Amino acid sequence: MTTKGEAFAGLSVALTTPLKNGEVDYEVFGEQIEFQLAAGTNCLCPVGTTGESPTLSHEVHEQVIAFVVEKAAGRAKVMPGTGSNSTAEALRLTKFAEKVGADAALQVAPYYNKPTQKGFYEHFKVLAEETGIPQCIYNIPGRTAKNIEPDTIVRLAELENIALVKEATGSLDQASQVIAATNLTVLSGDDSLTLPLMAVGARGVVSVVGNLVPGDMLQLVAAANAGDYEKARQWHYKLFGLCRDMLGLATNPIPVKSAMQMLGRDSGEMLLPMTPLEESEMASLRQTLVGYGLL
């Protein structure tokens, strides 16, 4: 069955935002984008949680979206994070992304204010009906404090511009319900669950470790999409240690930015309240990267 967001199947990478003295380092950012394009990444996802959207100003948020769209220049899809716990703010950011040429918008579930299921529906309905680009519902209750229930997503799937779900509930049952009942393209929102989710019908991943090893994650996704689960399992287990031992060290994006610093691809700088890893954690991270063959 062809899904509504089929053009976004494959590997999307949740880009980090490189910083220098508290400002976006656009030179390094351009290098990171070229690295992804050279690897064959299907879609770039700037200014999500991995891109430190909660601590970037609205002005910088917009500047980053425009920069990534311009640098990608049609060589990959661009699906920036434009979500908010304010529907009006999410709509403003999404309209801006559409205006500068983004291909879709990644909409995190409204967080902290914990809407009812009706509130979720009305929030995403406004974004779908008042903009002209596909919307990806990002369901991550571990961060937002509230789950978008499968029945709500099934209702939302009836709206033309609701096309994708970034599935980060950790529940294979929930993902299965959504995939069985809708024609939405479901993407894994957890690197380590990419293969299990693809086994039940997800079509790819919005990846954090893809900042480091996009080629390896592409191999996993391609093998799973081809039905070669023996090869997909090999890539799953190769990547699993990196996902577990790196991303489990601290809150995202602290570990991945630290890893990119070790690899000479980022300053490692973050905006408060994100803080660097402790020395013992850095030592553990270095060991993980050495074990993977990155150092």
From TrEMBL:
Its main location: cytoplasm. CDD domains: DHDPS (cd00950). GO terms for cellular component: cytosol. InterPro entries: Aldolase_TIM, DapA, DapA-like. GO terms for biological process: diaminopimelate biosynthetic process; lysine biosynthetic process via diaminopimelate. Pathway: Amino-acid biosynthesis; L-lysine biosynthesis via DAP pathway; (S)-tetrahydrodipicolinate from L-aspartate: step 3/4. One of its GO terms (molecular function) is 4-hydroxy-tetrahydrodipicolinate synthase activity. Its EC number is 4.3.3.7. NCBIfam families: dapA (TIGR00674). Catalyzes the condensation of (S)-aspartate-beta-semialdehyde [(S)-ASA] and pyruvate to 4-hydroxy-tetrahydrodipicolinate (HTPA). This is 4-hydroxy-tetrahydrodipicolinate synthase. It comes from Aeoliella straminimaris. Homotetramer; dimer of dimers. The active site is at 138 (proton donor/acceptor), 166 (schiff-base intermediate with substrate). Pyruvate binds at residues 50, 206. It holds the Pfam family DHDPS. Belongs to the DapA family. Gene3D superfamilies: Aldolase class I (3.20.20.70). SUPFAM superfamilies: Aldolase. It catalyses: L-aspartate 4-semialdehyde + pyruvate = (2S,4S)-4-hydroxy-2,3,4,5-tetrahydrodipicolinate + H2O + H(+).
